[in-house]
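In the laboratory, one determines a bound structure by crystallizing the protein with its ligand and collecting diffraction data. In a computational setting the workflow is compressed into a single prediction: the sequence and the ligand go in, and a structural description comes out. We illustrate the idea with 2-succinylbenzoate.
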Amino acid sequence: MRIDGIILRELHLPLVRPFETSFGVTRKRRILLAEVRSEGLTGWGECTAGERPFFSGESTDSAWQVIVNELGPTLASEPPEHGGECPRIFKQVRGNRMAKATLENAIWDLEAQREGVSLSQLLGGVRDSIACGVSLGIEPSIPELMARIEKELAAGYQRIKLKCKPGWDVEVFESVRNRWPEIALSCDANSAYRLHDADHLVSFDAFDMVMIEQPLWHDDFYYHTMLQRRLETPICLDESINNRRDALAAIEMGSCRVINIKLGRVGGFSEAIAVHNAAQERGVPVWCGGMLESGVGRSHNIALSTLENFTMPGDVSASARYWAEDIVEPEITVSSAGEIAIPDKPGRGYEVRTDLVERLTVRKETIKAFELVG
Ligand code: OSB
Ligand code: MG
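The predicted complex, in structure-token form:
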């Protein structure tokens, strides 16, 4: 495809409520959007890097630098025909997977539009709606958390995930289970525990959770294997899985029994599909994680979640849970059955509100091919 222009923008979007994890509180998102223009069409990508390099080593600012100075000019100099060619085009740049996914996912969006198919169809999706869960941050008090859970269950969400950390775990789980003995419940520690917490983590088995997400180090397999041997509850890995080889290692070592796939964390659709397929071939279910995305990233997550092995409800939920006003139209909504219906329009299926994007933009850069940069 001919690349007619790559524009990178930074937008500031305040969250409707703060989101607290074991590594910190997010009140406002600094979102990078890539707009790739080709032959009259526009593909959109969103960078899922955090404002600070706490979830992974990437941040909004590191991704900006790598996209503007490396990946953008590389893509403009070597235009792909398919989204699937991006990993090869970006191969020389190590790491920086969230930055890479920003551009690769925009190319997949373009390709779907060019072929006149939905992004879900282009990816090989098999479902016309996806199952939704919610991820609930650490709250100031247990009653406040209980009120949130009540609201999300009433809205229809199929699984409740509780962020946890030492001091915000068993007491919380006990209260939730006493009130809702039957709901699908999970927790996510974002690496807040260490091996000396193993006995404590084994006590989580009493709460009959669907999974415990990333209890130990962000880059570990071995100690998760040791822990999984002692736990009845399946471990789900998030931070530890950067690519297909990681998924294979984790599955073969018994480090986890479930995998959370995030597009940014693995570097884009190509690698996300590879992780999905590797897990499927080995009978390991996957689900789609979230990174507090705007409607652009959310629409990519929705399309990804239609692949066959996404058999567990993901962290992909309605726009209104995050934003007073989302940057896509229509906004993403969830039915009372806790499902998102897959749009059948070409591409992502949610229009970008370019006027609103322009108003929210705090910096903008037009990226040129290397030969034009000199
Ligand atoms: O670990 O899944 C995570 C948000 C920011 C960083 C890491 C995580 C999360 C979430 C939120 O759990 C999921 C969502 O977008 O709703
Ligand atoms: Mg997680």
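The first strand starts at residue 5 and ends at 21. Keep in mind that any predicted model is a hypothesis to be tested, not a measurement.
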